[in-house]
Amino acid sequence: MVGAIDVATERIETPEEVAEVLRKARQFVEADRLYPCTNCGMAPLSRSVARRTLAALSAGADIVQRELSA
After folding, report:
1. DSSP assignment string, 9-37
2. Which of 26, 38, 45, 60 could form a disulfide bond with 49, CB atoms 3.0-4.6 angstroms apart?
3. Distance CA 67, CA 23 (A)
4. Would you kindly state where each structural domain of the chain is located, as residue ranges?
């Protein structure tokens, strides 16, 4: 599991920022063993921020998945 989202702030990462974290993690972990996630629980975040954060996490993972499929 790779914490690609920082839940200690309400700043929403961009999908490209998430993808960059995942690319760096791939230096150490095979793609099929890499699980993108937050760096901790999302309880401190408002529901709105949490939803947008998860959308960015998903979009960033999609970017890397498309790169791997190319």
Report:
1. SSPPPPHHHHHHHHHHHTTTS-GGG--EE
2. 45
3. 10
4. 2-69
Phi first, then psi, for residue 39 (nearest 5°) are -85, 0
* Long-range contacts of the stretch 54-58 (C-beta < 8 A, 24+): 56/5, 56/12, 56/13, 56/14, 56/15, 56/17, 56/18, 57/4, 57/5, 57/13, 57/18
Which has the closest alpha carbon to 36: 49, 25, 52?
25
Closest by CA to 5, choosing from 51, 28, 17, 68, is 17
Q: Two tokens at 50? A: 């949490």
Condensed to tens digits (0 to 9), the pLDDT of residues 18-62 reads 999 999 999 999 999 999 999 998 888 999 999 999 999 999 999
